[in-house]
Structures are given as structure tokens and as C-alpha cells.
Design brief:
This protein is of the alpha/beta class and 609 residues long. The chain is built from 16 helices and 26 strands. The chain is globular and about 95 Å long. The structure holds calcium ion.
């Protein structure tokens, strides 16, 4: 018998557990356009130690001064030919090495920085992950996390997760979507209301109740294989009040109103453009906290600014993202938003980001878009913005009677205001989202009106986004209850009697709605006129709004008819698009008809054609 002796060496002076608790970003990449890396190390009194990076391709340019000695902020330079590998970062005290941290430089996913990204060829499915499908009941309760499962509480956690999305990728694909925007999956270890995801407590970690970072990467990979891109929801404006920074911030100016009495933002977005603004009002817009549980980050602090920029780039590279949706776009320091968008664009030219700016005024929305020449000289690299102005007239335009100043004229005149935008084709358009009453609710449960709204959304300029559950006409009894708007998708939980994925228990309107959307979405995937075509619209007359999307190869005529009684639409008005007799196909009804500008088009009932 042979004996093998094991010798265990104990190095008493090296003990990471006491010293380095966090390193962010957790790893980085070679071959980036920007060869600087700012590393945040956190641990008891590590700020007074001397760092050494054991990689010959990495140089410490600077140790950035922060008053809190529990932080060490390293400004590193990575040489263009630096080897991708693991290495040590050593921290030395007077008596030698005190802490050793493994770190890794990884190969960039693609040497080419051109990435697939979303555009008007896409249709986006928006998911609130806690409420879509529970693919892994094992992660519903995580020991040590502050909020557990409570499906009886509409503001509580219901157990949906990344596995639930993975399990239903085929469903999303077959519906005809090409991209998925998921409300934030990053950790929200908050005591309550953590399910919505907008109170980050760790910028580098997926919330364990949704799964792991690896699960998120797996989701993005599987989705990509099915032709679905993942758009990550990010929040640069604020974090959660239970973020670890709150107990021990690196600097005295990490947060706005740090250590002072709660001051909320005034939400006055116009103040950022207003030539007559009182500076105090503008400051409160930017510096005020979104709500009490979401402290406002001070992006004027250059360390924090770099931290947030690197965090976004890290996720793009790590998870192979298709795009980013940036929350509360106008609330951070606006020069930072330019630095953030432009830094991402430098790393990934053309990569699309959509910003949320919830106002009804296209003049304000347009201010934030790349290419817009603003009177105050403000410039941005943001390609896309949410089209809230259109959203805010859509339901009224369809619901209201066709009288002077009401009804379809509201959509017609809102789209006319596209002269404000540098590129209206890049706007993300939506009938609703996770923050407002669902469209079927706003259309008062009228199925014909629903079909009109969806037809408009999927043929209008821009990038359509549809909230999960819209396809099965999800409703909610209290119109402005967020918890109810974001209710559980039926079929996403074991034991659900009704199943929206398989149609079990759906009523005929719900099944029709799914089929209707599936037809339009799948047709839209291949329509050049919708992807890149121009738009021309005709003034609504007698309850009928006609517009054309047209390219060199295809013309799409959209007729929105609000008349209940059959009527004949005179086609002579549209002679420029129908110069000679031609065959037309009704995409929705799968019928063909001959069209001629000397004749009429029979519209048998209210609806979209
Ligand atoms: Ca779960």
C-alpha cells in the first residue's frame, strides 16, 4: 500500500476573506476600443495598501483618491496585445502581501465590434420576468434574501424567472417577435416591491430569484439561436436604497442629497430645455431622488460615471446583448448620458439603445436623440427613444367619436410632429408597457378597437414593442394598479387552469387576438416597406384614416375604418399609389382584390385593412 502525504501550506499573511469583498467589474476583456479599465476593490481598510497587478500587459496608471479607505479604485491601462488569462492582483502592506485577488482578462466575443442590434425590422416582446413564467420553483425563495414568495400580494414576488422565459422562447418566436426586452434582472435585494427590478442592489449580478448570471447568458444564447435578441433594461439614474453602497459610500458625493433629508425629483423634464427655467427647478429635476427607496446617483462624480459606463459595456460583452433599454433617461446628469451613449457607441458602433422619456411632447423627446441640433448645443449618441407622445393619443384616437378635434385626427397630427426628430424611424412605439394601463383595458374591452390599435402599431414607422399578455387580451380591474397591470401570465405557473401558451381555457376573442397578432407579426418580419419604407398619410375623413408605407419593391396601404356600417372607399384620392389597376392582398384576411383608382374599396365593417 502506498501512502500519499499531503502538505498543506498556510500563508498566514494572505487572507482575502477579511480584505477584498468585491471587485468590480468582476472580469474584463481584451481588444476593447477603450484600453482603460477602472477597477473598484472593496474591503476593510484596503485603501491604504499598495496594489500590484501580475499581468505584463496591464499597467497601473493611477490609484484614484477616495476618502473612504474601504475602497481602492485602480485606473489600469491594458495593452492592445495583452493576453487573455487569469492573474493575481496583490495588495501589499508594510509586512508584505496582505491580500491576493484572482482576476481575469477574457477574449472579446467578436474581434469585429459590429454587433447585431435592434431596428425597425424588429418587433419587441416586453416581459416582466417575475410575472411571466415560473420555470424553476426551487429559486422562488432564496435564503438570506430579504423578500420571499407571496403570490397573494400583487406587489410581492410571484416566482417567475429566467428559466420560465427560456422554456417559452419557442412561443415568443412563433408569435413572430424578434427581440425581447426584459424588465431588470439585476439583483434587487430590497425588503419589499423588489419584483419590478428598478431598485438595483448589485450592478453585476442577476437576482438569484431569477437565476444566475450564467442562466442569463444561456438565455441570450438560446434566444439568439431562435432569432430573438435580448434587450437589457438598465438604470443609471438610481439604485435601490438597500444597495451595499448606501451603508458605506466611496465618497461624500456618490449620491445626490447624500446624508441629507429626502428630496424627490420634480419630474419636470421640460426644465432641461426651458429657456426661462429657474436653475433651482432644473437642479431638483436632476438631483432629486426618483422615490425614497431609490437614491439618486451623482454621475458628476467621474469614478461613478466610469463605473456605470463600464457596467453597461460589461453586460453587452458578457451576455451578448442585442440592445439596451435605459430607464428614466432624462433624470441623470445629462452630460453623463452623452458620455455613456457615446462610450458604448465607440465600443460597438451602431449598437442600439432606447431611452425612456415619458412626456407627451415630441419636442422634448427629440432633444435626446442623436443627430438632433438643439438650441442649447446639447448633443447625444442615443439612437432610439420611446414614443410616449404617440402612445398617449393612441387609445383616445381609436375610442373617441369622429368629431372636430377628436378621434383619428389626434394620431394624424401627432405623427405630423415627426419634424422634431432627427430620425423618427428609430423610435420605439408601443400601445402600453409595464407602467400604464394595458391597451385592452384602455380600449374598454372592444376587440375591434384592439385589432385597429395592433394594426397601427405593427405598420407605423418605428420599432413596435408589445407587452406580454397583450396577445391574450390581459385585463386588470383597477386601471392604475401596477401590481395588476403586471399580473401573472396564465399558464406560466404549475397548476394554472388557463394556459395562454397552449390556448387551454382561452375564450374565442383571446384565441383570435393571438392569431391576429401572429399573422401580422410574422408578415411584418419580411416586409421591406415596413422595415425601411417611407410613410405618407392622408388626412382622416369620415372616420377613415389611410396611410402608405412604401419602398422600391413594396407598397403597403393601411386603412383604418371606424365606421360600423358598410361603405365604399373612393380610391381616386390615392392615385399616386394606385396609378394603374393592380392586385392587392389583404394581409389580415388573406384575400386578394383588384384595385383601380377609378373604383372603390368595399369596407364591410369597422376595422383595419
Ligand atoms: Ca422561480
Amino acid at each position: 500500500m502506498r501512502y500519499i502525504l499531503f502538505f498543506i501550506f498556510i500563508l498566514p499573511s494572505i487572507c482575502n476573506a477579511q480584505h477584498i469583498k468585491r471587485v468590480e467589474p468582476p472580469h474584463w476583456y481584451t481588444g476593447m476600443a477603450n484600453n482603460n479599465l477602472q477597477l473598484m476593490l472593496y474591503g476593510q481598510n484596503i485603501g491604504k495598501l499598495l496594489p500590484q497587478v501580475m499581468h505584463k500587459g496591464i499597467k497601473i496608471k493611477d490609484i484614484l483618491p477616495v476618502p473612504n479607505r474601504n475602497y481602492m479604485i485602480l485606473d489600469l491601462e491594458i495593452s492592445p496585445d495583452a493576453e487573455a488569462k487569469s492573474f493575481d492582483i496583490l495588495l501589499r502592506g508594510r509586512k508584505g502581501i496582505v491580500a491576493r485577488q484572482r482576476y481575469e482578462l477574457r477574449e472579446r466575443r467578436s474581434k469585429s465590434n459590429q454587433r447585431a442590434t435592434f431596428s425597425s425590422k424588429d418587433a419587441i416582446y416586453l416581459i416582466t420576468p417575475d410575472r411571466f413564467a415560473n420555470g424553476d420553483p426551487e429559486n422562488d425563495e432564496i435564503k438570506g434574501m430579504k423578500e420571499g414568495l407571496d403570490r397573494t400580494n400583487e406587489g410581492g414576488r410571484h416566482g417567475g424567472d429566467i428559466q420560465g422565459i427560456i422554456d417559452n422562447l419557442d412561443y415568443i418566436k412563433e408569435m413572430g417577435f424578434t427581440a425581447i426586452w426584459i424588465n431588470p434582472l439585476t439583483e434587487n435585494d430590497q425588503s419589499e416591491w423588489s419584483y419590478h427590478g428598478y431598485a438595483t442592489t448589485d450592478y453585476y449580478k442577476v437576482d438569484r430569484r431569477y437565476g444566475s448570471n450564467e442562466d442569463y447568458v444561456r438565455l441570450a444564447k438560446l434566444a439568439k439561436e431562435k432569432g430573438l435578441g435580448i434587450i437589457m433594461d438598465q438604470i443609471a439614474n438610481h439604485c435601490g436604497h438597500q444597495h451595499w453602497w448606501m451603508k458605506d459610500p466611496p465618497t461624500k458625493d456618490w449620491f445626490n442629497y447624500q446624508g441629507k433629508e429626502f428630496t424627490g425629483t420634480n419630474h419636470r423634464k421640460h426644465s432641461l430645455l426651458d429657456p426661462y427655467v429657474a436653475p433651482e427647478d432644473r437642479e431638483i429635476m436632476t438631483h432629486g431622488w426618483f422615490v425614497k427607496t431609490m437614491p439618486d446617483l451623482n454621475q458628476r462624480n467621474s469614478i461613478l460615471s466610469t463605473y456605470l459606463i463600464q457596467n453597461s459595456i460589461w453586460w453587452i460583452e458578457y451576455a451578448d446583448l442585442y440592445g439596451i433599454r435605459q430607464d428614466t433617461y432624462s433624470y441623470p446628469f445629462k452630460e453623463f448620458m452623452t458620455a455613456w451613449t457615446c462610450a458604448i457607441d465607440t465600443e460597438y458602433p451602431g449598437f442600439n439603445i432606447v431611452g425612456e422619456e415619458w412626456v407627451d411632447d415630441p419636442g422634448v423627446i427629440a432633444y435626446w436623440q442623436r443627430g438632433k441640433e438643439n438650441p442649447d448645443g446639447y448633443t447625444s449618441c442615443l439612437k432610439s427613444i420611446m414614443d410616449f407622445p404617440m402612445n398617449m393619443v393612441l387609445a383616445d384616437a381609436i375610442n373617441e367619436p369622429e368629431v372636430w378635434g377628436k378621434g383619428l385626427i389626434k394620431l394624424y397630427e401627432m405623427i405630423a410632429k415627426d419634424y422634431h426628430y432627427a430620425d423618427p424611424m428609430e423610435l420605439v412605439i408601443m400601445a402600453d408597457n409595464h407602467d400604464m394601463s394595458r391597451i385592452y383595458e384602455r380600449l374598454e374591452g372592444n376587440f375591434e378597437n384592439f385589432k385597429i390599435a395592433m394594426s397601427y402599431l405593427l405598420t407605423m414607422r418605428g420599432i413596435p414593442q408589445i407587452y406580454y399578455g397583450t396577445e391574450i387580451l390581459m385585463e386588470h380591474p383597477i386601471s392604475d394598479s401596477h401590481g395588476q397591470i403586471r399580473s401573472d401570465f396564465p399558464g406560466g405557473w404549475k397548476g394554472d387552469q388557463i394556459n395562454g401558451f397552449t390556448n387551454r381555457g382561452l375564450n374565442s376573442d383571446q384565441k383570435d387576438a393571438k392569431g391576429f397578432l401572429r399573422t401580422l407579426l410574422n408578415w411584418r418580419k419580411n416586409s421591406a416597406a415596413i422595415h425601411d419604407g417611407k410613410l405618407m398619410h392622408y388626412e382622416p375623413q369620415q372616420g377613415i384614416y389611410v396611410y402608405f408605407r412604401y419602398s422600391d419593391t413594396e407598397t403597403v396601404m393601411v386603412v383604418i375604418n371606424k365606421n360600423e356600417e358598410p361603405l365604399e372607399l373612393d380610391l381616386s384620392r390615392f392615385e399616386r399609389f394606385i396609378p394603374e389597376p393592380m392586385m392587392a392582398k389583404d394581409i389580415i384576411r388573406n384575400t386578394s382584390t383588384s384595385m383601380d383608382n377609378t373604383t372603390t374599396l368595399s369596407l364591410k365593417q369597422k376595422g383595419a385593412y
